[in-house]
Each structure stands twice: as C-alpha cells, then as structure tokens.
Amino acid sequence: MALVNRISRIFTADLHAVLDRIEEPEVLLAQSIRDMADAVAADERRLAAVKERRQQCQRDLTASNARLAEYDRELDLCLGSDQDDLARGVLRKKLAESRAAASLASTAKEADEAIAELTAVLGQRRRDLEDISQQAEVVRGDRPVPKVEAVSDNDVEIALLAEKERRSAP
C-alpha cells in the first residue's frame, strides 16, 4: 500500500510539473489582472445602484414627510370642527403613511450600511489591483525593479538618536 501511495505522489508531482511548464506566467498574470479589473467594475456598478436606491429612498421619505405634515393640518381642521368621523379617516391615512415612512427610513439605513461596506471592499480591491498591476510591470520588465539598500544597525541607531532628539525638543 505504501508503494502505491508513493507512486501516486510521484505521478501527481510529475503531472503538476508538466502543467507548470505548459502555463505561461505572464498570460496567467494578465488574466488575473483582467479578472480583478472586472471585479472592481462590478463593485462600482453595485455601489452606484445602491447609491441610486438610497437617493430614491430619500426622495420618497421627503414626499412621505410632506404628506404626514398635510395629514396633521387636516387633523387639526377636523378636530377643530368636531368632525371625528373625518378625523378617523385622516388618522387611518396618517398611520399608514407613518408606517411607510418608517419602512423607507429602515431601507435608507440599510442602504447607508451597504454603501459603507461596498466602499471599503471597493477600496481594498482597487489597492489590490494597483499592487498586482505594479508587480506585473516589474515581471514584464516595463518598470525597473527598485534597488533597496539594506538598513544597517548603525543606520537604525542614528535614526533612533535623531527621533529622540526631535521629540525632546520643545
């Protein structure tokens, strides 16, 4: 049984090595960049749709509040004229409108939360796309690899002394 497992692992390793040679890293990298760009575009469309929904909720809520104010005026008139039957009808409309306004406010709050979440996700995806695009430029040779000199212990000590001096100055 151990012999079969070892042969299986060798075959799998050889198969992976063949696949690695067949795949072109530059093509795979370019496809990854396209996929990430598509994801960013999809997130941007989703964010725009949620923002539009939020604006529509706000417009509907403004109209609902105007209707509620009108119902209050009608109630004042009905109650001032001792017209309880008319007041009941206006109250029915006012209660229905109040519930609709509460629902709109809840939907607007959910949209605000979705906007915040999508904005964060979109920002992270944009940063990731920028990072991988820069890495691709380095791999393709479009951009020279920046040479970074090693930081010595003496450099660290000098920087530490400078920071201490800067912080102690009045």
Task: Supply database-style keywords.
single chain; 170 residues; mainly alpha; 4 helices
SS-based class: mainly alpha
Spell the H/E element sequence: HHHH
Radius of gyration: 33 Å
Tally of helical segments: 4
Distance between the termini: 76 Å
Helix content: over 70%
What shape does the CA trace take?
Answer: elongated
Strand content: under 5%
Report the average pLDDT across residues.
85
Sheet bearing the most strands, described?
none
Low-confidence stretches: none
The beta-strand count equals: 0
Describe this structure in words.
- This protein is mainly α and 170 residues long.
- Helices cover 88% and strands 0% of the residues.
- It contains 4 helices and no strands.
- Helix 2 (25-80) runs antiparallel to helix 3.
- The longest helix has 57 residues, at 84-140.
- The radius of gyration is 33 Å and the shape is elongated.
- The protein starts with a helix and ends with a helix.
- The relative contact order is 0.09.
Give the structure's gist in a few sentences:
The chain has four helices and no strands. By secondary structure, it is mainly alpha-helical. The termini are far apart.
What is the topology?
Blueprint lengths: L1 H21 L2 H56 L3 H57 L12 H16 L2
Helix pairs in contact: 2-3
